[in-house]
Design goal:
Layout: H1 2-20, H2 24-37, E1 50-51, H3 64-72, E2 77-83, E3 88-94, E4 101-103, E5 109-111, E6 117-118, E7 125-127, E8 132-133, E9 139-140, H4 146-150, E10 160-163, E11 184-186, E12 191-192
Parallel strand pairs: 1-7, 7-10, 10-11
Antiparallel strand pairs: 2-3, 3-6, 4-5, 8-9, 11-12
Length: 194
Amino acid sequence: MDSIATLKRTIRRSIIERILAMNPQERAGEDAALTALFPKLEGWQNSRCPLLFARAFLEEINTEPFLRASLEAGKRLVCPKVDRRAKCLRLFEINNLQTDFESGTLGIPEPGSTCRQVDPEEIDWVLVPGVAFDARGYRIGRGAGHYDRLLPRLRQDVPRWALIYEAQWIEQVPVEPHDVPVDGVASSSRIICP
C-alpha cells in the first residue's frame, strides 16, 4: 500500500504541474467549455439538492459558474466543510455566494457558521473534485480521503460526476481498497460513464 500512496503523490504532483503550466487562453477555453457542459451532465437538471465544491486551489477548475447556476435554477446548493477533528466532510446549504463562504482549512472557501447543516441523505447529485482521473472513473484526490469517506454515506442512486481539464486524464489511477469511483467524468473533449 505504501508504494501505491507514493505513486499517487508522484502523479498528483505531476498533474498539478501540468495544469499550472497550461496556456492561460487554453485554460480559459476549457473552463468555458466545462461551464457549458455542466448543466447537461446526467441527473443535474432533475436534481434538487446538489453537492458542489468551491474552487480552492489554483489548479482546480472554476466552479463559480456551477454554484451560480445551481442557485439561479432554484436548487438547494450544498457545499462541504472539513471537520478536522472527525476527519470528515460536513455538508451545509449555501444561499448567497458572497456572504455564505469563509476561509476554512488550508484557506479553502467553506460554508460559514450561519449556514444550515444538511444530512448526506438529502443530496441527490454530486460534483466530485480531484487531481487525476481515468476512464474507469477512479480518481486521485488531495490525499486526505475526505470524499472517499463521504461518497459511501450518500444514497446509492446519487449520480457522482467530475468535470476536469484535459490535462487531468491519466491512463490508469492506482487503486486502493478505500477508493470510490465516480459515475461519470467529463472534459472538453470527452465524457465517460464507466
